[in-house]
Amino acid sequence: RRVHGDFLNTFIYVIDNQRNSTVVIQQSNMAANKYVKYVQETADQYNDKLRTISQSLLDNPELAYKEYKSHDLLTEFLNQQGFKVQDKYVIDTAFRAEYDTGKSGPTIAVLCEYDALPEIGHACGHNLIAICGLGAAVMIKNVIEQDSSIGGKLVVVGTPAEEAGGGKIYLIENSDVFKEVTVAMMAHPVPRGCSNWEDKDVTLNRVCFRARFKGVSSHASAFPWRGVNALDAAVSAYNAISCMRQHFKPSWRCHAIITEGGFKVNVIPEFAELEVGIRCLELDDLVVLQGKVHDCLKAAALSTGCSLEIDYTMDTAYLAVATNKPLGVAFGKYATMLGESYERRGGHDALQASTDMGNVSRVVPSIHPWYSIECEAVNHSRGFTEAAGTQVAHNRTMRTAKALALAGLEVLMNPELVEDIKQDFEKIYIDDKNRLITSGVVKYCPE
């Protein structure tokens, strides 16, 4: 593997699964190493303010595409720090903030998320993701202001609706926000020990859809034989999917909820609806699993006499995050220096979750490292919402923001690294362009 310099003359040991051997990576004297002090000073300077912003987001959770207060809070901070802010960028709750050195060079994009989940609030820690992005951005900006030799641009992108609605995908398809970006970066909190910096696929591909069953209403007691029960179809489909799970591959996932199933107990339901999510590590497997789930839905409709409609318009397909390896290694070296642990979680050991950051990673070299906030509660639980407000979680987030900032500065200052990043991106995706799955419903590589 290529390394850049002699960083602190120390080493980390990494298990390379592809070669099935132990690989020694020298921590080299990377270009941004001399700015660690400035980054630390900036982190200390903004620590309390960022903690306040995080708590405000936590106390005022907002759902997808309705993050109005969150949008205003983050853009106000960036305006105060001297960024040129475009609020309501394409989406009412998205934003783009830029700091331009006025000199040629790479463009670094740092992404923020800030939408919450229904009922359980910031149970995926998006309040922390938001301040991680803000923190990394002000750290990079302050270093640039200290060294007039650094060229390029820094862009902060506020991306709503990650939990549902694919805000990043909407921005990809309806704006030029990523068009001239050299790299895109963000980080995500998890309970414990899941920092992944260089493996290709660290999440799962995902598609979601609604299955609508239509029957015939009737009096449930007086004339039940005149009805066709749509709820029975939904329950049958749900049970069929559950029975099929024992035959899933380890990286396959399917989950469903019944969102509608009748309105009064003495009326046979004429309409019922399932929301279904399918996830797989491999895109080919996603097509296979999709077909199996469709068969369960069709069988349920046939056995109950209902009609079936499958609607994919509820959400956009999320692609697996494809980590750019050279950029991930650069982040990992700084994260290690700052005290972060390392655990490989790619391939079939990937975290079994999905994000629209995966779609971004198909159009620009990207990283999406996981970092631990040292809690027992898992993501998407009330316990994790509580954990996302702790001082420990804040401290771990600020440490991760420093590593993102130093990785971003390395890109701005290290042309050799930029070339490696570009080559890795082209090498991975040269055969992926315009690949379609699910009969054209899902674009593998959005243009």
Short structural summary:
Helix content is 37%, strand content 19%. The chain is an alpha/beta fold and 447 residues long.
Whole-number average pLDDT?
87
Beta-strand segment tally:
16
Sequence of secondary-structure elements: EEHHEEEHEHEEEHEEHEHHEEHHHEE
What Rg, in angstroms, do the CA atoms define? 23 Å
Major pleated sheet: 6 strands, mixed
Principal-axis shape: elongated
Instruction: Please work out how many helical segments DSSP would assign.
Output: 11
C-alpha termini separation: 31 Å
Task: Give the strand line-up of the largest sheet.
Answer: 3-4-6-5-7-13
Helix content: 25-40%
Strand percentage lies at 15-25%
Low-confidence stretches: 1-27, 433-447
Structural class: alpha/beta
Word description of this protein:
The protein is built from 11 helices and 16 strands. The chain is an alpha/beta fold and 447 residues long. A 6-stranded mixed sheet has the order 3-4-6-5-7-13, covered by helices on one side. It has a 4-stranded antiparallel sheet with strand order 10-11-9-12, with helices on one face. A two-stranded antiparallel ribbon has the order 1-2. It is elongated and about 80 Å long.
Layout of strands and helices, then pairs:
Elements (H helix, E strand, L loop, with lengths): L9 E7 L4 E7 L8 H24 L8 H13 L3 E4 L7 E6 L6 E6 L13 H21 L6 E6 L8 H8 L8 E3 L2 E3 L14 E10 L15 H15 L8 E8 L10 E10 L2 H22 L2 E5 L13 H13 L19 H4 L5 E2 L2 E3 L9 H6 L3 H23 L1 H15 L6 E2 L4 E2 L4
Parallel strand pairs: 5-6, 5-7, 7-13, 8-14
Antiparallel strand pairs: 1-2, 3-4, 4-6, 9-11, 9-12, 10-11, 15-16
Helix pairs in contact: 1-3, 1-10, 3-10, 5-6, 7-10
